[in-house]
Amino acid sequence: MTWVALTLGRPAARILLYPICVYFLLASRTARRAIARFRERALGRSTDWSDLLRHYYAFAATILDRVYFLRCRFDLFDIRFYGLETLDHELAKGRGCLLVGAHLGSFEAVRAVGVLRRRLDVRVLMDEENAPLMRGLTRTLNRTVADTVIQAGGVEAMLQVKECLERGGIVGVMGDRATQGDRTIGCPFFGREARFPTGALRLAHLMGSPAVLFFGFYRGGNRYDMHFESFSDGVRASRDQLEALLHRDIRRYAERLEEACRLAPDNWFNFYEFWDGEER
Amino acid sequence: MEHSGSSPIEGDLAELIVRTLKLKIDPTAIRPEAPLFGEGLGLDSIDALELSLAISQTYGYQLKSSDPEIKTIFSSLRALAKAIEKNRTK
Q1: Quick check: is A61 in a domain?
Q2: ipTM of the complex
Q3: Is the minimum CB–CB distance between A181 and chain B shorter than 8 Å?
Q4: Where residue A133 falls among pLDDT bands split at 50, 70, 90?
Q5: A170: domain range?
Q6: Who contacts A259 (Cβ-Cβ below 8 Å, separation ≥6)?
Q7: What are the tens digits of pLDDT across the range A150-177?
Q8: CATH 1.10.1200.10: does it fit domain B2-87?
Q9: In a domain, A180, yes or no
Q10: Do A159 and B64 touch (CB under 8 A)?
Q11: Which of A216, A223, A226, A222 is nearest to A269 (CA)?
């Protein structure tokens, strides 16, 4: 597919995405049900096959576009920025910035900020062990980008995060998906309890770095809307205050995420049962 | 058996760990050779980072991600105490 994407170009590759999406839509009963459930909760109405196909297509399109982003083909896209001054404002404090995202739209598009605006020190903390295909793709297409990924887990990764923040850089972290061993806090999400990992916000409080929310919405065609909004101003918290602060933060994060989901429901890319106690 | 007891710096470090991470255990309960993170005490990598900040403040030893020994250093109380002894500036 990477070959198709780069040789035949984006329009041809996008046509090929249709049969691929139909295949996955039919083959993945569990994922399909999870997405249908998400859509029903988020939108309050039932989901039909055309909604699901559009949802799968949005996901496939952002995966395809990752190839072009990694090749720095930003010229192919209409990328709009909203609230970028928030990021500048927080970075001016000189304590780096945690960019807290979600599996909503394209997080990869955030690299465009570094490339299009000016040379920014952007690193992304992620669990690549669980995404070996993606890691392979990143390594093949852009070694420089691959080297900016901080593989989550272990003290070494956390020291890399600290060093990047101390240099005044940006560290991107996902705030929505808890993996095994993550500390989580439960909070209502579209009216029902879900568990969110606290890692990103714990880092912000520990390092005294500001946190900015980031959503890279895919709007169809070649358009991406990148939204930045300030989340917390980076005051170091003591251990005694921490639990209460994290509960407040997670609740607020979940509220902002709900709002973002309503703006772009097709961009929800957690293809598994997100809520507690839902069968997998 | 000398190696099963704690050296003075191990005792101080165990206290620093308990105090920094607000653990509800007695410092002497941290066994010098047991794994510090992951299992046992239930500490994760962000706790490790918090501890490294406290170590830098207390002992003037800046732990770095580029240190090839970093994983070994954080493997146990004993290993961490040894590294501090070797690198401390205060």
Answers
A1: no
A2: 0.92
A3: yes
A4: confident
A5: 78-267
A6: none
A7: 988 889 999 999 999 999 999 999 999 9
A8: yes
A9: yes
A10: yes
A11: A216
